Amino acid sequence: MLQIGVTEYTFSLWEVRGQVRAYSARVSSAEIGPFDNTFAPPSKTAMAYMLWSAGLPYAHDREFAAQIRTWLSRQVEGGGTTVADVGGYTYKVDASEPQIFNLDVEAVTPE
Q1: pLDDT at 91 over 60
Q2: Please, which domain of life does this record's source organism belong to (predicted)?
Q3: Domain limits at 59?
Q4: How many domains does the chain fold into?
């Protein structure tokens, strides 16, 4: 966890036999109190962190990574929770709480 002012950035990584299986990124800010239900968009810094996190599986493919970042931006702007399978990964975005944004990415296991 990294804390800068009232904002906390966390990143967790899970691996299996040396391969990344899943990761999670979270940004939370104490600028809005727990009883304030108004939605506020993330700061530019918080959004940059989440966009960077979302593109990690596709760092080698700039075009696809850009598409993932565009998709994530739309999800965060809309609030709520969204789950989507994209390019071999399941993305879960949770922007349902004011000033708390979660991104979970997990490799899809072939059946």
Answers
A1: yes
A2: Bacteria
A3: 2-107
A4: 1
Closest CA relative to residue 78, chosen from 65, 91, 93, 63: 93
Tokens of 52: 């960077």
pTM of the model: 0.82
Provide the residue type at 41 as one letter.
P
Of 73, 68, 70, 64, residue with least CA distance to 105: 68
User: Could you identify the residue written with the tokens 């700039």?
Assistant: 62
In angstroms, the Cα distances linking 59 to 13, 16, 33, 68 are 16, 20, 36, 11
Using CA atoms, how far residue 20 sits from 51, 53, 94, 101, in Å, is: 18, 13, 21, 22
Spatial separation of the C-alpha atoms in residues 51 and 35, rounded to whole Å: 28
Q: Which residue has the higher pLDDT, 43 or 100?
A: 100
Cβ neighbors of 35 (< 8 A, separation 6 or more) are: none
pLDDT in tens, 28-55: 887 655 555 555 677 788 889 999 999 9
Type of residue numbered 58: Y
